[in-house]
Each structure stands twice: as structure tokens, then as C-alpha cells.
Design a protein that fits this description.
heterotrimer; A alpha/beta; B alpha/beta; C alpha/beta; A: alpha/beta; 9-stranded parallel sheet; 48% helix; 8% strand; B: alpha/beta; Rossmann fold
């Protein structure tokens, strides 16, 4: 006992205080003074440029949405988990899908076999979604789907599922991630080339604006770029650049910016540098609103609102000494609240190496509840506003974010940068640099590269195990539905889809919903679209 | 500094997992240690990976897996290599590999398991040791 | 056509690529030119690998057994390399009549790889109809690759205007077929015009081959068909007109040169790595042997 305490103290002495720079490389002053702040008046919340938030009363009227990621194995198992979480006071569901569903392969495809039900639930066709939401009223919950390459199909399936429950589509709330650009850069579940993918995204947003006006048809995500190793500045800059690429595409398709911008939302990671994270969100809100106003002529306040959800944890969590992660997630959650997030997902402390247990998932949710109901930080709007340091850092973050966005523009825009593999290469270089800094202990990660102990792992007791028969059950159900459905109707719906896809200006959503109603599978729909559009060819540059 | 000069090493992403940053970081680290690195890109089947390993006659194959399908995909890749008379090409694994699965992989013949928290220099040194002529003999 | 023993070929190529000069000489066997060789060169970013992938697919569809040798640059500092060309040919890699081999340039600075002549000779002892050689794409690789291939394709993009200017000094007219890739980008017509103008100017009197300039783009199948046709036409042209002795002489000359360059590199490496004596002593000894005259 004493030996442990002593060795830790020695270790402690060996390390100097951290460098006075944020992880993005912004200098931190010894003392922040009023002259360092560009505008002494930080402005009002809910007023342009929204530095202090988009709501006049912050979280007083309504707390953020507590969202936990789950869903694995079969639809039946996930359904049981959802019912448990809703009983525990969770206010939104978050659906994780398995990789075959995300990449557009049916569970019996040779490419899919090893991965069915592994990182999420398999939703190969409408019958699986009916099981997933069995006994859950879709008009009463908000559901977030982490889905991109096949987002239009899963969204179509959700509409079809509502139809089956007798819930009017207009009552649906929730989000599909539907952000394909970052898939090419950091997450890898792309299917089609960039341009037809952009078309599909515009289709979902334009359709959703009318048919499901309370649903967020896109969540433009910086999270994965960040988790892969970008800085906070790059996370925000790449994400905003992607956001404006979608705006351009929607305008090209005849969309009305004032209308569609109200349904664009964002998604980020929160990592450990507390003030940089807070400043990142304050600066991001400002840049988004300014460019929408100045470049796109948007004047409606609500359309300029930068709404975002966050994940606390991700790659800031360690497999070494994993209980430390509980503290990390706590700090990150506070940064998210003070940055003004609309929904928060907290990672379980064991997420770095396994599917969370019920115990670890519960602590993750309790962390949010403690911060919401005990810490008091949600009681007043933007309590850090007006702090010399926070305002100064917000200014500096804004400058750096705009600089990175200008670099992308100078290259020829995000679409070109992605098609050429330029952004991917930049990210790989940055990630390697980050790793080298950790290896050299220039960046300290407690319990991983400093303050280590003999046994770096902790004993967890129960470990969640996937049912080894899960994949077999999914395939069995899949074969059964193919026997049971009206195959002529499936073919007819797929033919219509293919014909519509061949025309540039036809919205594919109604065709996809028809395919779902006919119990066409995700793999079948994707195969038809691939025939016309081809597949993305990865432009690997290292 | 460990040296992998002249070694041909393949870094592959089997299955559908799209998280490639770890694979790319390792590819760059091996290159910087002097290796000639063949990176496959995403979504390759075990059969494809084995064929490329044979055509390119690589000195080692590294598989990066984060989707929890490591047991199936590693075993299948090793089977495919054997079927092509290339069972002697050493296979190493990186990514998210739960502690309790590691013994199984080592028993199956994997020469090393490198997790995200290992120092890059240590990964390079361990590979260099594994690929040195004394080790092979 | 007998099936390839891929494992044996893969290993043979490693052996030959790693061979010292002495080993190369010991292993040299009189293989006669067998496969028809097509070189693809051009600046980095011109899309050579992707173009080769699409071109090779047409050659494979025509029934040919094809080898692709793709060369990427080695870092002069660490000697490391990312061999990233073959990933752009993945869509055809399932074809068992195709064999792709990636090489690092190592010590070579002529756009090719150290032992490339031996590697190509090794491929000649396997049943390939065609070998496609992709150069590094930095520097001016045209000269060296010209000596080793039958048909040379130079791939440019609308953005390589500056390179064209630099090439007018004599490199540009070496190719047999010109490709303007990414022809959907602005400036494609302009660069095509410039090349045609240069070729017209340099057209040798009495030469019966007029190099075509072909436009290709990602979404355009016609361009690839035109390239395929142009290469085949040049192949037929060579069959009727080539002076085989001249081709042999050029290849032998390249082989000799590369053996000598490698010998020099080996001597330098040996002498400067020697710890037994100072670098000055090694220097003096090498200078002495130069005075005597190497190879005389």
C-alpha cells in the first residue's frame, strides 16, 4: 500500500507541468486580461452570432437530451435493452447498426458473414425494425441512428415502420447521422462515389423538411475525424466545411436555405482540454452563423442556429487503468454543458476495449444526471461568458478554424479534397504526429504513458458476451422473410427505384419507402443503386 | 533505432471495419523505420489479402481489426495463406483485441498483437526482432 | 497458357530485387525478350495507376496474361516506402491472369527501381503476354524507361502545363502515345493542343508513326478504348518496323549501366561503412582504384 503511494509520488516529481498550449497549438497566457478579448461585450444568448448559446434561458427551460448508444446482436435483444433504458429515465434512444447494414450488405453476403450483429443491430429489412421497436411508440421517443452510407434506406425504413404503427410521419423525432463526407475521411462506411452520395443526402433532407419536419435528417459529424487524431480546431473546421458543402448541394437542388438550415445539426467529440473544448463550441456557433449570414444571405435567426450533440469519451479514454475514464467523462461532460450542447452521450469507462456492461453503462448515464441535477452548472446561461480567458480562447479558436477552412477552399473544396485523398492524408499525418507526442510523453495521458502501475488492467467481473448464435438467428430470419414476402412486388419496387436513380432530379425517398414496405432488403436496394452509380474507389495517399 | 530496411510488410484491413487511422499510423511508422509497406485500403476479404501477400512476397502481414471480428477474420486469413503455400508468412494483428482473446490468436500462430496504446517504436522494435534472420532460423 | 505458379514467381522476384551485383551476374540466364512491354510514365498525381487498372482490364478482357510492375519512391533518408499503386488496381486484382508487383525505387534515381532490368528479365521467363511498367513519376523517368519498353505512354493532366514547358527540352517527344488524363478538368484541350504542336515540330522526317494524343476521364469509357486501340496499333506497327537489334542494344546498354551504378553504390556502401579505418583512408583507396581505371 505505502509502496504504491511512494512510487506514484516519485513518478509525479519526474514530470514538469503541462506545456502552456492547447492541444491545437494555441498559446495559453499566464494571465488573461481584458485587452486580449476582441470584443469586450460577449453579446446575448440567442442573438447573432450566438457565442453564448442559441436559447435565451440556456438549460433552464429544458435540459439537454441524455442519449446512450446501444443496440447489438439481434433486434429482439436490442428491443429489450431499449425498454430497460427508457425505464431508467433515458430520454432518447440511440441505435447502433452492424457493419453489414451500414455498408449495404445483406447478412448472408460473403462480405458480411463475420460481422453480423457485431457492433450493432442488424436491420436488413423492415421486419427487423418492426421487432426493434415492438412495444415502443415511435411518436413518444426520439431515435438517433448512427447510419451514413445507407442512411436514406434506414430513414425510409423508419418512415415505413411509423406507417405500420399508425404513427403519422410528421410526429417522428430523432436523427440520422447521414453525413457521408466524413465517412470518406475517417469512418469508412462509404458505398457510392461522392457525387451520387451527395445527391442521396440532399434527397433525404429535402424530403424530411416536408414529411417529417421534427426529424433531423443529418448530423454533420466532426467526432470521427477528432477520434482519429485531428485537433479540436480541425474537427470544427472540417465539419463546418462539410456542412457548407451540403448547403451548396441543397441550394443546387433548389432547396430554401432558411427552411433546410433549421434542420441541419452537428455532432462532435469532447476531449480533455476543458477550456479549448468550451471555446471550440462557442467559436463554432459563431462561424456557422456568420458564414450563413454573410455568404448565403440567411437572415432568420433560427436558421443560423448551430445545434449539436456530443460524445464524451471516445479515443480520450484508455484501456489502461480504465476506472480513470469515469473522471475523464465527468470533466468532458461539464465542458459539453458549458459549451451549450443539445444532446450528450457519455461513454462507458470500459468502452475502449469491450461492449459496455450494464454496470458501466449505468455509471455513464449517472454521470450526466449528477452534472445535470447536482453540480448546478446548468442553472445559468453560459456561466463562462465574459471570462477574459474563455473569450480570448474563443476568438483564437475562431481564427484558427477559419484558417483551416480557407486552406480547404484553396485546395478546391472538400469534395475535391476527399476525392483526391488529400484530407485523408492530412488526417493520417496529424494522427501520427499525435501518437508520436504521446509516445514521447509530450502529451501526458495519466495511467497510459505516465503514472503507470504494475498491472495496467482492472478486474471487471462480468464481461458482456455476444450471443454466439446471434448471427445464425439473424440469417435464419432473413431467409424466412425472403420466402414469405411477395417477390414480384419487391422486384417491381426495386425497378422503380433504379429508374428514378437514373434521373438526376428525382427525389429517391418515396421509392425507398415503397421498397421498404415491400420488404426489399438493404443489400438489394444498395445493389440496384450501385449498378447505376458505381462504387467509391478509395484514393489512398500516405 | 530499429531498422526494417528492405523488409516488405503488408498492412491490411479485413472485413467491413472502416476505422483505418490505426492501420495508416502503423504503415507510416513502418515506412519511417525503413520498411516497404503495402497498405491495402478498406474492406478486403481474407482471400484477397492472402493473394496479394503471395504476389508481393511480403515478409509479414499485419491485420488491423476493430470491429470485434478478429477471431474469424484472422483465422480465415491464415487458412487462405496456407492454402496458397504461404503459411510461413508471419501474421501480426493490431486494433481492439480484448485481453481474453489474445491467447487464442497467439495459439493460432499470430506472431504479435499490437494494441493502440503501445509505443510506435516498441511496435517497430518487436517486428524487427521477429523478422530478423536469427528469429526466422 | 500454363497457369502461373504465383508463389514461385513472387519469391523469384524478391530474390532478384534483393540481389547484389555478384548475385545478379551469377543468376543471369539468357532469357530472350518474351512479353510485350508497355511503359506508363508521367508526373505524380496524373492518375497513372488508376489508368493502368482500367487499361489492364481491357487487355485482360482481350485474353492476355498481364503483369504490372509498379514503382514507388523510396525515402532517401529512411529507405522506407509506401507502395500504394496497386490499391488503385484493386477492381481487377481478382483476375487470376493478372499479376501485380510493387517495387520501391531504392537507390535508383531514374524513375525506376534498382534491379528493374533483372526483374523484367525474370518476368520474361514466365508466361506473360504483356508487362506494364509504371514509373515513379518524379523527375524525368522517360529516358530510362524508354530503353526498357516497346511502347511508351506518357500520361499528363491539364494541370501539368508547367511540366510540359520543362519537357520541351527533349523529353516530351520520347513517347509513342500521349494521354491527357482527367480530361474533364478545365484546360484539357489547351494542353492537348500544346502537345500536338510540339510533336509536329519534332516529328522526325520520314518517321511513319505519328503519336496520338488521347483524352481520358474517370467516367469516360471511350478514352480507355482509344488508348487500348492506340497501344495495339503501335504494337502492330513495331512488328513490321522494329529493328530488333536496336532494341536489344538499348536494353543491354541500360542493363550494363545499371549494373555499374549498383556496383559503385555497393563499393561506396562497403567503404564508407567500414569502421576499421577512417573515411579518409577509404576515400584514398577508392581514388587510387579510380586512377587505375575501373573496368579497363
Amino acid at each position: 500500500m505505502t509502496a504504491t503511494a511512494k512510487s506514484m509520488a516519485d513518478d509525479d516529481l519526474a514530470l514538469p507541468p503541462p506545456m502552456p498550449r492547447t492541444p491545437s497549438g494555441i498559446d495559453v497566457p499566464v494571465l488573461a486580461t481584458p485587452e486580449m478579448v476582441r470584443n469586450p461585450d460577449p453579446g446575448e444568448p440567442a442573438q447573432f452570432p450566438f457565442t453564448r448559446g442559441i436559447f435565451p434561458d440556456g438549460f433552464r427551460g429544458r435540459l439537454w437530451t441524455f442519449r446512450q448508444y446501444s443496440g447489438f446482436g439481434t433486434a429482439e435483444e436490442s428491443n429489450a435493452r431499449y425498454r430497460f433504458l427508457l425505464d431508467q429515465g433515458q430520454t432518447g434512444l440511440s441505435v447502433a447498426l452492424d457493419l453489414p447494414t451500414q455498408c449495404g450488405y445483406d447478412p448472408d453476403d460473403a462480405m458480411a458473414r463475420a460481422e453480423v450483429g457485431k457492433v450493432g443491430v442488424s436491420l436488413s429489412n423492415l421486419s427487423e425494425m418492426e421487432i426493434l421497436f415492438d412495444g415502443i411508440d415511435l411518436s413518444k421517443i426520439s431515435t438517433s441512428f448512427t447510419i451514413n452510407g445507407t442512411a436514406a434506406i434506414i430513414y425510409a425504413m423508419y418512415c415505413a415502420c411509423a406507417d405500420k404503427q399508425g404513427v403519422p410521419r410528421a410526429k417522428l423525432t430523432g436523427t440520422i447521422q447521414n453525413d457521408i463526407l466524413k465517412e470518406y475521411v475517417a469512418r469508412g462506411t462509404w458505398i457510392f462515389p461522392v457525387r451520387p452520395s451527395m445527391r442521396l443526402i440532399a434527397d433525404t433532407i429535402l424530403f424530411s423538411n416536408d414529411a417529417t419536419p421534427r426529424f433531423n435528417p443529418i448530423s454533420i459529424a466532426g467526432a470521427h475525424v477528432r477520434d482519429a487524431g485531428s485537433t479540436a480546431v480541425e474537427e470544427m473546421a472540417y465539419t463546418l466545411a462539410n456542412g457548407f458543402a451540403y448547403v451548396d448541394e441543397l441550394l443546387r437542388r433548389g432547396g430554401d436555405a432558411t427552411k433546410f438550415a433549421k434542420r441541419l445539426s452537428f455532432f462532435f467529440y469532447v476531449h480533455m482540454d476543458f477550456f479549448e473544448e468550451v471555446a471550440k463550441f462557442r467559436a463554432g456557433r459563431r462561424v456557422w452563423a456568420k458564414i450563413l449570414r454573410d455568404r448565403y444571405g440567411v437572415t432568420d435567426d433560427k436558421a443560423m442556429h448551430f445545434r449539436f450533440g456530443v460524445v464524451c469519451g471516445g479515443s480520450s479514454l484508455t484501456a489502461s487503468q480504465p476506472y480513470n475514464n469515469i473522471v475523464r467523462v465527468g470533466i468532458e461532460t461539464m465542458a459539453a454543458v458549458l459549451g451549450g450542447a443539445q444532446s450528450i452521450f457519455t461513454c462507458a469507462y470500459d468502452e475502449a476495449f469491450q461492449i459496455p456492461t450494464e454496470f458501466s453503462a449505468e455509471i455513464a448515464l449517472r454521470t450526466q444526471q449528477i452534472i445535470a441535477y447536482e453540480s448546478g452548472i446548468s442553472k445559468t446561461v453560459d456561466p463562462l461568458g465574459g471570462s477574459f480567458f474563455v473569450e480570448h480562447l474563443t476568438d483564437r479558436m475562431e481564427d484558427e478554424i477559419v484558417k483551416v477552412m480557407d486552406e480547404i477552399d484553396a485546395y478546391g473544396g472538400v469534395v475535391r479534397a476527399i476525392e483526391d485523398g488529400w484530407l485523408q492524408m492530412r488526417l493520417a499525418e496529424r494522427a501520427t504526429e499525435r501518437r508520436r507526442k504521446i509516445d514521447a510523453v509530450d502529451t501526458v495521458i495519466v495511467g497510459q504513458n505516465a503514472f503507470r502501475r504494475e498491472s495496467q488492467t482492472d478486474d471487471f467481473g462480468e464481461v458482456f458476451r455476444l450471443d454466439p448464435q446471434a448471427a445464425a438467428k439473424v440469417i435464419e430470419k432473413f431467409e424466412a422473410i425472403r420466402d414469405r414476402r411477395d417477390n414480384a412486388a419487391v422486384e417491381a419496387s426495386l425497378d422503380k427505384l433504379a429508374a428514378a436513380a437514373a434521373k438526376d432530379d428525382e427525389n429517391l425517398m418515396p421509392y425507398l419507402i415503397d421498397c421498404c414496405h415491400a420488404y426489399a432488403t438493404v443489400g438489394e436496394m444498395v445493389a440496384r443503386l450501385k449498378q447505376g452509380w458505381g462504387e467509391f474507389q478509395e484514393p489512398v495517399r500516405l | 533505432m530499429s531498422n526494417l530496411k528492405g523488409k516488405r510488410i503488408m498492412i491490411a484491413k479485413p472485413g467491413l471495419d472502416g476505422h483505418d487511422i490505426g492501420a495508416k499510423i502503423i504503415a507510416l511508422a513502418l515506412r519511417d523505420a525503413g520498411a516497404e509497406v503495402i497498405y491495402t485500403g478498406l474492406r478486403k476479404t481474407p482471400g484477397f489479402i492472402a493473394r496479394v501477400a503471395v504476389d508481393e512476397d511480403v515478409d509479414a502481414v499485419g491485420l488491423s481489426l476493430l470491429s470485434g471480428s478478429h477471431k474469424e477474420l484472422v483465422a480465415e486469413t491464415m487458412r487462405e495463406l496456407k492454402a496458397l503455400d504461404a503459411g510461413d508468412i508471419p501474421v501480426f494483428v493490431g486494433g481492439t483485441i480484448p485481453v481474453e482473446d489474445r491467447a487464442t490468436l497467439i495459439e493460432a500462430g499470430v506472431v504479435g498483437i499490437f494494441t493502440a496504446e503501445m509505443r510506435l517504436d516498441d511496435v517497430v522494435a518487436e517486428l524487427a526482432r521477429r523478422l530478423s534472420p536469427e528469429q526466422a532460423a | 497458357m500454363r497457369p502461373l505458379d504465383r508463389r514461385a514467381l513472387g519469391r523469384a522476384l524478391s530474390r532478384i530485387a534483393n540481389a547484389s551485383v555478384a548475385e545478379s551476374l551469377a543468376g543471369m540466364q539468357g532469357t530472350s525478350p518474351n512479353a510485350y512491354r508497355i511503359g506508363m510514365t508521367g508526373p505524380p498525381g496524373a492518375g497513372k495507376s488508376t489508368l493502368i487498372g482500367r487499361f489492364a482490364r481491357r487487355r485482360l478482357d482481350g485474353g492476355a496474361q498481364v503483369a504490372v510492375v509498379a514503382i514507388d519512391p523510396s525515402s532517401p533518408l529512411t529507405h522506407g516506402a509506401i507502395l500504394g499503386d496497386r490499391i488503385r488496381m484493386d477492381h481487377i486484382a481478382d483476375n487470376l491472369r493478372l499479376f501485380i508487383r510493387s517495387l520501391a525505387s531504392r537507390g535508383a534515381n531514374d524513375g525506376l527501381a534498382d534491379n528493374i532490368a533483372d526483374v523484367l528479365a525474370t518476368l520474361d521467363s514466365y508466361p506473360f503476354d504483356e508487362v506494364i511498367l509504371e514509373t515513379v513519376g518524379v523527375g524525368q523517368a522517360e529516358h530510362a524507361v524508354r530503353s526498357l519498353v516497346d511502347t511508351l505512354v506518357l500520361v499528363l493532366i491539364p494541370e501539368s502545363g508547367d511540366q510540359i514547358q520543362a519537357m520541351k527540352a527533349g523529353m516530351l517527344e520520347m513517347a509513342d502515345v500521349y494521354v491527357i488524363n482527367k480530361a474533364d478538368l478545365p484546360g484539357a484541350d489547351k494542353i492537348a493542343r500544346e502537345i500536338r504542336a510540339v510533336l509536329k515540330l519534332k516529328q522526325r522526317v520520314g518517321a511513319s508513326w505519328a503519336p496520338p494524343v488521347i483524352m481520358t476521364g474517370a467516367a469516360d469509357a471511350n478514352g480507355i478504348a482509344a488508348l487500348d486501340e492506340a497501344v495495339s496499333r503501335h504494337q502492330a506497327y513495331l512488328r513490321n518496323s522494329t529493328n530488333t537489334e536496336e532494341v536489344q542494344r538499348r536494353r543491354l546498354e541500360y542493363h550494363l549501366k545499371s549494373l555499374m551504378i549498383r556496383s559503385v553504390a555497393e563499393i561506396l556502401a562497403r567503404e564508407t561503412n567500414s569502421t576499421a579505418e577512417s573515411l579518409h583512408a577509404a576515400y584514398a583507396r577508392v581514388v587510387e582504384s579510380l586512377r587505375k581505371g575501373i573496368g579497363r
